[in-house]
Each structure stands twice: as C-alpha cells, then as structure tokens.
Amino acid sequence: MPNHTGEPPRGGIEVRSIDYVPEHERHGRVRDQGPFWFLGNFQFFTIAIGFIGPSMGLSLGYTALAGAIGILFGTLFMAFHASQGAELGLPQMIQSRAQFGYRGVSLVLIGTLFTFVGFNVVDVVLMASGLNGIFGWNATVVTVITSLIGMLLAIYGHDWLHRVFRWVFYLSLPLYLVLSYAILTGGAGGKVPSAGGFSLVAFAAQIAASASYNITYAPYVSDYSRYLPRNTPARSIIASVFLGAASSAIWLIAMGAWLATRLGASDGLVALYQSGNAVFHGFGALIALSSITAMVATMGLNAYSGMLTVVTAMDSLKTVRPTRALRVVVIVLLTALWTAISLATSVNAIEMLFAALTIMLYLLVPWTAVNLVDYFYVRRGRYAITHLFTPHGIYGIWGKQGLAAYLLGFAATVPFFVLPGVYTGPIATRLGGVDIGWLVGLLVAGVAYYLLSRSLDLPAEQPAIEASEQALASLRFDPHHAHDKGVAYEPAA
To answer: What is the pLDDT of residues 108-122, one digit of tens each?
Structure first.
C-alpha cells in the first residue's frame, strides 16, 4: 500500500504509471540523469551500431565520424524532450495528447510500441547469439531468463530502474576504460584493417542509424525525468541527458568500428570477449557479462515505457484506472510478446538491427518534430494538464493539426525510404541509395505543424491552464476522475 505521500514503500513496486506525479512526490535528482542515459547506451547493442558502416565498406575513421554526427543530431531531440518530464510530471505520450488529441494520439502510439518491442527483440536476439557463441549457452534459455529479469525491473518501476542503472554504470565504466586504453596502446589484439574507404551511401546509412539510436529514446525520455521537481532548470536537464546519452554512444560506436575493421567482428558481444581476453585472460568474460547486465537493464526500460504506451492507448479508447495490477498485467503480456517474437527470429542480427532502427526512425521523426515545435514554439510549455485526461477538454478527441502534420511528414519520407532487400523509394534510388528520408520527414512535419498551428486559439486555452494549475496546486485533482467535478485528489493504488 502507498504511504501518506502516495509513494510506494521503500523497495516496493512503483505506484504511478500514466497519471500525474504531484509535486510532493518529486524525489528525482538531475545529477542522476547523465549516468542513467550514459548507461542506457553503454552496452554492446551500441557497439553493433558501429558495424554498419564497415559492413558497407566504410573505413574506421569515416564510420566513427558518421556515428558522432548522427548521435549528436539525434541526441538533441532526445534531450529537449527530457525537459518536459519535470515541467509537466507526465509520461511523454500523455503529453502528446495536446498535439494529437485524446484518441488521436493512438496513431503515434503504434510507432512507439513498435519501437519498445522492436528494441527488446533485437536485444534478446543479440544476447542469445552472443552468449551462445562465447559460452555455448542455450539461446532459448538465455532469451527466457533475460526477458524475465527485464520484466521484473519494469514491474518495480522508476526508482528501481534508476537504482540498477546507477549500480551497473559504476560496474561497467572501469571495464570499458581499461579496454579502450588497451585498444589505443595496441594491447587488445587486432590487425591492419582491410581495404575500406568512403561511400556516400554507407556514410549516410551510418549517420541515419546513429541518429535513429537516440531519437528513438525521444518518446520515453521524459518518463524518467517526471519525478524531478518542477522548478528544475530545463537547461540542467537537457545538458545532463545530452552529455550522458551522446558520450557513451559516440564512444562505443567508434569502438564497434574498430572491432569490425581490426577484428572482422560481426557480433558485438563475441568481439568484446575476444578483445577483452587479449588484454588478459578472463577479462573478456568480465566485460561481456557487464555488457549483458547493462542490456538487460535497458530491456527493463523498454518494457516500462512500453507499458506506459499500452496503458495510454487503453485509456484513450476507454478511461481506465492506472493501478499497479494493470501495470503488472500489461508488462507480463509485453514480455510474452517480445519473447515469442525473439524465439521465432532467425534473421541476421546486423541486418535486423539496421532494418529495425531505420523503421523506428521513419515512424518517430514526424512525431518528435510535431511535439517539440508545439512545446517550444507554439504553446511554449503551457498546458492544461487536467485536460489531458479527458476527451472533453480543450485538446479534443482528435488533434487535427498534429495528425495532419504527422501524416504529411511520414508520407514525405516514403519516396526516400531505404530498406535494403525490402523497398527503396524512387527518389532514394535516384540518389544512389542515400537515406535522407528521416531528415525530410523531420522538416516537413515540423514546418507543417508550425503553419497549421496558426489556426489554434491559444488565448482561449489560458483560463483552462490557470484552472488546471490551481487544481494541481491544491492537490484536489485526480486525473482519471477528470470528468467528475470536485473529486478529491488521491494517489493511484
């Protein structure tokens, strides 16, 4: 049972899910955001991103450069989304009802759910393949056990995810520092690289995959900043998230490029193991298992936000009470889904990774453009939070401007699609297979929403915003009884 503040007992299952986190429950610390998102990218999934360029003939230097460009660009969007959590105290996709409408947001939720499930499928396949290759462990057993651990982390929720990420961060950082030093000083094995050079198609593909990697965090980064005090400076949150998420990804993508070009690696975990053992016997197993631990923790992250996505979709169709029981049931079902898909998957890991990241990027870029333009340029962070929990509020059932901008942005990407072996758009074909579709979608959706938003009557929203602030300040508002009048605030149970 929650205590008098509405928080779960210490060490217990989190109480809240898609509901508003009131100010007196905001116990997060901005200094935890950097290490949290650093660790989110600090595992061999990120190393595998560095294999994409070399697999297409790109050299080590150009792969590292393309990876850095993509990560820096993608992390900008991710970091700016993070500031919304503290200001609004809401999961990201609930806030998106302001742009897409109470039910209209369900369209975007399809893309975000694909992202969360897709990441966990790729995670599990990579882990099962790598551990089988290193230790001969049964892939099915690895799939089931890692999925169950990720499930438990998601069930216990926000505080436990932050806690475990912090522990794994301190465990992993020294190991990667040792390996990186060994690589720089020639103590990690390797050979003179095979011929590799520059290809615009490969360079663009590496940028797109790297940008996608952190842009795909955008739909859920504020899920983990919503417990920060509301008065936390936005610049502090943005800087902390940006530095954490960008630095680890740039580091390990460059390491992945080295492993691919110097060791001919095609499996990130096996490559870590081999290069680690070149430093000294047993170090390979140590760093490989630490990377597995980080990836399992990240699976918990995906499962937790996947749950928020599903519950938001359910609530958008018919108001639900976001209880802990509902959270647990949804997480268990999501675990069963990604586990079943993982066991049925036999696609080459790198091909599957690249295809999944590309599809995620196409789906999410129009959404992030609409959301950020609305938050920073149209409504400038001013929302009637209570109205996000009712179809009869000022944001309506269908957000025509947001939906139109999203669909325009996505449609604009189709002629630029580059999905090897599946589909290449006509304009992409003329460009020689260079993938700029995601950039086109970003620009078209952002500009379209900015122009369409001129039809919004923003001054008319002001009374609702003021009433919402008064309700939240007095703690008299229970979001999921928003259609009732005068319902006392009560923590979700």
So the answer is: 888 888 888 888 988
The rounded distance, in Å, linking the Cα atoms of 290 and 283 is 11
Cβ contact 55:350 at 8 Å:
yes
Domain ranges of the chain: 23-349
Determine the Cα–Cα distance for residues 402 and 366; give it in Å rounded to an integer.
Answer: 10
Give per-residue pLDDT as tens, 8-43.
445 578 888 888 888 888 888 999 999 999 998 898
Strand, helix or coil for residue 103:
coil
Q: What is the CATH number of domain 23-349?
A: 1.10.4160.10
Measured CA distances, 307 to 81, 110, 125, 297 (Å): 19, 13, 21, 16
Total residues found in the chain within this entry: 493
| Confidence check: pLDDT of 189 > 80 | no
Tokens 């504020």 correspond to what residue? 222
Instruction: Identify the three-state secondary structure at position 58.
Output: strand
Burial (CB < 10 A; 0-12, 13-18, 19+), residue 77, is buried
| CA distances in angstroms from 47 to 70, 304, 393, listed in the order given | 14, 24, 46
Chain centre distance of CA 9: 28
List, as one string, the DSSP characters of 379-447.
STT---GGGGG-TTSTT-S--HHHHHHHHHHHHHHGGG-EETTTEE-HHHHHTTS---HHHHHHHHHHH
